[in-house]
Amino acid sequence: MQNFRKCEDCPSSVLLLKFQNGGLAAKPGREIERHLVECEFCSTEVGFYSRYPQAEGASETAEIPAPLFELAESLLMNRQRDPSSLDSLLKEKGSLAVDRIK
Question: Contact 33/42 with Cβ under 8 angstroms?
Fold first, then answer.
């Protein structure tokens, strides 16, 4: 998990969002596809955008989606409950969403 981070050669989040939404020309899209094969972080980010679609016109100044903000905040606060803390956090968030539906 130590190397799970965005690097200098990674596409910006704005480009990854455009890629996910199908808004890139063929050549930049192919370049991102190749990058996603090698970069687990960016692949995960694109997966996030797939699961939590962003509003049309989302930009660099758009507010960070609440689930991503909560995940980032917990990681930055270095919660170390157990080795599967991310899994625990996601299960915790999932149960909260289910509770709200009831």
Answer: no
Q: Which tokens sit at 57?
A: 């016109």
Reference 11, options 65, 92, 34, 50; nearest CA is 34
3-state secondary structure (DSSP) of residue 10: coil
Contact present, 86 and 79 (Cβ < 8 Å): no
How many Å apart are CA 27 and CA 2, to the nearest integer? 31
pTM score of the predicted model: 0.54
- State the Cα–Cα distance between residues 72 and 41, nearest whole angstrom: 13
Mean pLDDT taken over the chain: 75
Query: Which region, left, alpha or beta, applies to residue 87 given φ > 0 means left and ψ of -120 to 50 means alpha?
Result: alpha
Alpha-carbon separation of residue 92 from 11, 15, 89, 98, 99 (angstroms) = 31, 30, 5, 10, 11
Q: Give 43-81 as a DSSP string.
A: HHHHHHHHHSPPPTT--TTSPPPHHHHHHHHHHHTT--S
So what's the pLDDT on residue 79?
54
